Structure formats: structure tokens, C-alpha cells
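Appendix B, Record 12. Input sequence as logged:
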Amino acid sequence: MVDFRPAVTDTPVQSYSIKYWGPKGEDGSEAPVNMIDVPLNRTTGNVVPDLTPSTDYSFQVLAKLADGSELSSDVIAIKTPKEGKSDNKLLALIL
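Logged structural output:
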């Protein structure tokens, strides 16, 4: 699950997205980037589907603002738990 704090900005936030990607391929190719749109009122408990156990992933939260600009959190890397464990959470702060 991904939890994050709302963006702190004078410009209204129109939407949030969670961006995530896995490790590079065996041939060194970049992993595909996935995006999940998140309702404005849901900053906790955002489920990221289809993650592989014991795998490194990178996550970033994006806030799309009313003026067309975008704020992004730092990229946070985590390793998913082994199969059968699901207590890992990620906190991404939008600055």
C-alpha cells in the first residue's frame, strides 16, 4: 500500500497519481513505468496491484495542479516482502 501526505501548495490540486516501476531487465533495459490515478480524498491505503514478491520497486507520487504544473515527491525505493507477508507500507511526502 502507498500512503502519502497531501501536497502543500497555494494552487489547487486537481488530481494525484502514483508512479512506480520495477528493476531493469536482464538486458539492462528500463522497466516499464506504471501509473495509478488516486482520488483527491484518498491519501492512505492505496493498493498497488500485481507486485512481484522479493522485488525492488521505485515509487513517486505526483500532484497535478490547476495551473497545469505538477509537483512530485522524492522517489522512494522499497523491496516487496516475501510471499505471504503484506505488512510493508510506503510513505511518500510531496514537498
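The chain is about 0% helix and 40% strand.
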